[in-house]
Amino acid sequence: MNYLRTLLQISAAIVAFLLGTGCGRSESSGEAGENGSSRITVGFSQIGAESAWRTAETESIRFEAKTRGIVLKFSDARGDQMNQIAALRTFIAQDVDAIILAPIVETGWEPILREVKAAGIPVILVDRGVDVSDESLYVTLIASDFVEEGRMAGQWLAERTGGTANIVELTGTTGSAPANDRAAGFREAIAGHPGMQIIHSQTGDFERSMGKQVMEAILKSERAGIDAVYAHNDDMALGAVKAIEEEGLKPGEDILIVSIDSVRDAFVAMTEGKLNATVECNPLLGPQAFDAVEAALRGESLPKWIKVEDRLFEQMDAAEILPTRKY
């Protein structure tokens, strides 16, 4: 009897194990939903949380994943490309269905993207591009036209100053696509105005505290003769506002300020007269990113660049638009 009871217990355990494995992860690497259907799993490698813009992008992608029932594996690189490369290798090991990548810089991606491609995992780039010899290493880039953003800022400043200004440029992360392109577009716009000169150009790494620190140093060395600040993002511009105020000057009056991103704090600063203009760069890329993920998993072809359209806002627009800002 003991032998029979033991045999029955073993048989029951085997059946339970087989049933249990049938309700686990599917071959697509998605987790099973309540109805037993598989769920898509997506790895998202984010640069960090260096600005309000970056935080808004992260929240948009997280919210969209939750809305669509997608399992999101999130990795914060804390501003380090090597952390992003390590995250992509982790995503490969986790057998995710797709990867969303916001690359910190343009170069240095080809080897890891080849590993991802070999694993059969499609990559969607968001907000920044990569410099690779083989464009098949990623499906599409969802991003604004950074050159055009810089061009809009330069055109606005040229018109506002009558084509004569000594300019301080606060640049973004060295080697990043937005820093490279926003600088190029701005220079293109002011090239036809010999009276417009960039007298200082220094990175603030897209951070508010760094923008303030850099502007403080520039004002200490050359307080007089600065007519305008062009910042590659709003956070650095807002840091510069603080530095200018601490020097006893009036930002927006004594020194004109134009920046890029159009985050909510920039509109607040414009209503206070401290920021003159901001060029939009929409961070709410979640819906487009997951549309691209789902299309790629269905085997559909996508354009290599899905362009996000932007526009410029001035002080006169700020009070009306501020209540509607989502980031």
Which structural class do you get from the secondary structure elements?
alpha/beta
How would the global form be characterised?
elongated
CATH architecture of the largest domain: 3-Layer(aba) Sandwich
Tell me the total number of β-strands: 12
Strand content: 15-25%
Radius of gyration: 25 Å
In sequence order, what are the helices and strands, one letter per element?
A: HEHEHEHEEHEHEHEHEHEHEEH
- In helices, the fraction of residues equals 40-55%
Which CATH C-level class of the largest domain is it?
Answer: Alpha Beta
What is the residue-mean pLDDT, rounded to a whole number? 90
Topology (elements, then pairings):
Layout: H1 2-22, E1 41-46, H2 52-68, E2 71-76, H3 81-93, E3 98-101, H4 110-118, E4 123-126, E5 140-144, H5 146-161, E6 164-171, H6 177-190, E7 195-203, H7 208-221, E8 228-231, H8 234-246, E9 256-261, H9 264-271, E10 277-280, H10 286-297, E11 305-308, E12 312-314, H11 315-321
Parallel strand pairs: 1-2, 1-3, 3-4, 4-5, 5-11, 6-7, 6-8, 8-9, 9-10
Antiparallel strand pairs: 10-12
Helix pairs in contact: 2-10, 3-4, 5-6, 7-8, 9-11
Explain the overall architecture:
This protein is α/β, with parallel strands linked by helices and 327 residues long. The protein folds into 2 domains: 41-143 and 283-307, 3-Layer(aba) Sandwich (Rossmann fold); 146-282 and 313-324, Rossmann fold (3-Layer(aba) Sandwich), CATH 3.40.50. The protein has 11 helices and 12 strands. Helix 6 links the parallel strand 6 (164-171) and strand 7. The longest helix is centred in the N-terminal third of the chain and has 21 residues, at 2-22. The radius of gyration is 25 Å and the shape is elongated. It starts with a helix and ends in a 6-residue tail after the last helix.
